[in-house]
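Q: What structure does this chain adopt?
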Amino acid sequence: MTIPPVRWALVGYGSGGRVFHAPMLAGADGVELVAVVTGDPGRRAEVADRLPSARAVSDLTELPDLGVAAVTITTPPATHTDLAHRALDLGLDVVVDKPFALTEAAARRLVDHARDAGRMLTVYQNRRWDTDFLTVRRLIADGRLGRVHRFVSRIDRLRPVRPGWATAVSTGGGTLLDLGPHLIDQALQLFGPVARLHAQLRAIRPGSGAEDEVELHLEHAGGVFSTIAAGMASAAEGPRLQVNGDRGGYLVDGFDVQEAQLKSGASPRTLGDAWGVEPPSGFGRLTTADGTVVVPSERGRWDWFYPAAAAAVRGEGPVPVDPNDAVATARIIDQARISAAEHRVVEV
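A:
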């Protein structure tokens, strides 16, 4: 017996919806992308052109009549929780893009609502399936680094200030909410809860009303020290990941290949087995007492997220990302703002 796919809707069709989510949904096993919600007439026309099998609608309330079971919220950050609450009230299962919520309190309310409603709720932490992150997990699991004591994760970019929601903290703008959720989540996944932290948040670019340079120093309860850094005013890129243990260290430059593949117009469906495969130029290096060797990267698997989410909707497996993990990340972000404002180390 063939199991029918989960009928899915995409809420929002900006760059996140168009570039990062639509291709992943369209090619996911067990998923049928049947609708896109956008209030922009131009974007509704674009949906009709790019996604002829999906219907463009202007409001969430139209989705139940289309037989939609689950939605992905990929709108400006300040709207995420309101739209997610509305979707839950309509009886829909929900994926929320990062940031899950602007504050820890808002994140907890959303998790509680989904629990009380008996609906599936998860967050799109696709960076858990980056090539470099999966490679680090393998090296740690295989014991090749020994006991890890230091982790550095950074993304350096040089981007102009663009008018809109991204330039104000009140509307969910700023680098801490943009890149922070991914980098913090990766650190928590690798090394567990944080006991205390210190943060520096700065607005460097003229006209940037929100922080565009971020550095967090996290002391994990297990003893690892993590440095999280991200910036939109940094032209010279540092290493993407650096991990040091008492037996070896790993360093990798550049960015996971999957983002570039999506931006080029490719998708898991069009690339097949070439999806997520890092070229040798993107491999990292492992250094031990015996010298330095190049380490082939694990294959990136962003394409695993939506099939897992669909299985969770059908009650056949766990959610791909526990929403309580997003609450933990939101707490780190809240505490980072306190640390930066008061110039002190704060307990988490």
